Amino acid sequence: MFPKNTWYVACTPDEVTDKPLGRTICNEAIVFYRGHEGKIAAVEDFCPHRGAPLSLGFVRDGELVCGYHGLVMGCDGHTQSMPGQRVRGFPCNKVYAVEERYGFIWVWPGEAAQADPALIPHLEWAVSPQWAYGGGLYHINCDYRLMIDNLMDLTHETYVHASSIGQKEIDEAPVSTKVEGEMVVTSRYMENIMAPPFWRAALRGNGLADDVPVDRWQICRFTPPSHVLIEVGVAHAGNGGYEADASFKASSIVVDFITPETETSIWYFWGMARNFRPEDQQLTDTIREGQGKIFAEDLEMLERQQQNLLRHPERNLLKLNIDAGGVQSRKIIDRWLAAEQSALIATDKVAAGQV
Prior knowledge:
- By secondary structure, this protein is an alpha+beta fold.
- Helices cover 25% and strands 31% of the residues.
- A 7-stranded antiparallel sheet has the order 11-17-16-15-14-13-12. A 4-stranded antiparallel sheet has the order 5-6-7-8, with no helix packed on it. A 3-stranded antiparallel sheet has the order 1-10-9, with no helix packed on it.
- The longest helix has 31 residues, at 281-311.
- The model has no long low-confidence stretch (mean pLDDT 94).
């Protein structure tokens, strides 16, 4: 259903403070906490004593203590101690590779020995002072691939987001889809149009006139397992569009990290990075509030879509030219899943002495 030997965004640092955080990622119940010297750790959210969630416990001197009977779990998955008990021989918990980087906490829900921190995608906007970022988190009851479909085909903006970023010109603009290795790129360019409300506000936020024609662009980039970054923006018409000088435009990167919880639910980390007026915190807050409302408009549609698909599993869905981005993204996911399955079968054969 979803690749496990890869990096997903699990949470943000502010979610893991002096208390542990329990979160299910790819059907794996995981507890995140800060161990010694504040270093992030992640182990199976299961107490080997009576099966209580370790996330209902607390952190004491950098150690995770079960809130049921006081068992102390180490970052290595071994039980360290338990009041009045000998703990030698206690079963070991699964340990997850975890990294704190770019303002997110990343987890590798598969085999920790295969985790390579170098595979975490580089996010220039997260480390450069020329950029500002604001975002949030939604829990949505839908298959993670439905959200990828949603983001790789922005035609729905005309209808779902009619009062903010939608406009009829999106429907009228041709869409281009191409595959570059393991990246899928879907793009639209609209020339000499009036900006919708969200982008008029962005123009004003950058000190530009909002009542003149603009050129608009949407460039969606999917990379596995489930990351979608979208270059979006508007520029005063006749100044080069996407290539226009910064003095004529307001542009941003829409950040979408989609982390499967189960087969029918996700953790959706959304945000927007911009490279104009990065020092303006009030502008960051205003954009985040506006974007949060926009993404909230998708929630009911995706959850009701999921309910319909579960209700009618026999129905075949249509695939149109506007769906090419999502279709190609799913093909890459399927290849990853097949490769993981083949590796698992090979490992099982070796363990069984069949090779």
